[in-house]
Amino acid sequence: MEHLGPECVAAILEWLRVAAEAAAAATATAPSNETARQGLLWTAAPYQEDAPAIATAAEMAGAVEHLRFAVFRRCHNQLTRAERSRLDNSIANALFKIDRYLTRGDDAERALYLDEVERLRGEARDHEERAERLRLQARRAEVKLAQLASLSPETFEEFVGELFEAMGYDVEVVGGTGDAGVDLALRRDGLVAIVQCKYHKRSVVGSPDLQRFLGAIRHAHAHKGFFVTTSSFSLAAEKFAADHPIELVDGPRIVELVNHALGPKAGKAMEPSWF
Questions:
Q1: Cβ atoms within 10 A of the Cβ of 24, count?
Q2: Nearest-5° Cα angle at 213, 170 to 245
Q3: What is the CA radius of gyration of the chain?
């Protein structure tokens, strides 16, 4: 084995010295292992659905986080009947345990969580009240649907208004003298639509009716129009509607809308889309 020259040995020693100084500097500026480990820990403990009570502050934080997610999912997601039932039970369970914990907790914890818990409780309650209101409106629409052949034009207009209410629209009755072809005004999320109701037993709605209705849509500055009739539409009317912001609703489509409003029968929550 050849011996290293003095220059080579000096270079190696200098490299080792520089490396050692760099390692010492990194160790001095880096956080301790304890600090790094604690920085990765969650402050909330996972919520235990089956636990009889909340025992610690960390479990309380986890319960509130669970409640926040459950209420959001219940109010904003499309769910099956079984999913709705599970979420309702989970929300009630979490609220019960949270209330018990806050009752025996200290003032600081009550101040930290009380407003948030009450907000979530109110959001869940408001959603359930609105859903029940929509279910009742849909049931009334279903009853009138069975009597559709015997409705008067005025009752038919009332039926259509209740049907759109059951689908989640804000409905204003406009019909009357000088209604300009507008019987109902619908609003949802800043968007506006108008409705014209035609109670016909035999006659077919043609394209001239839709042309006049299109003028009413533009005059009302609406985004869309619904033309609702108990009869049917001519082929020319269907072609005209396809090129304009008009949705045609005939007898079979009315039945579909009622079934949509009665979402729980189909195992789906009532989550009507706007357009």
A1: 9
A2: 70
A3: 33
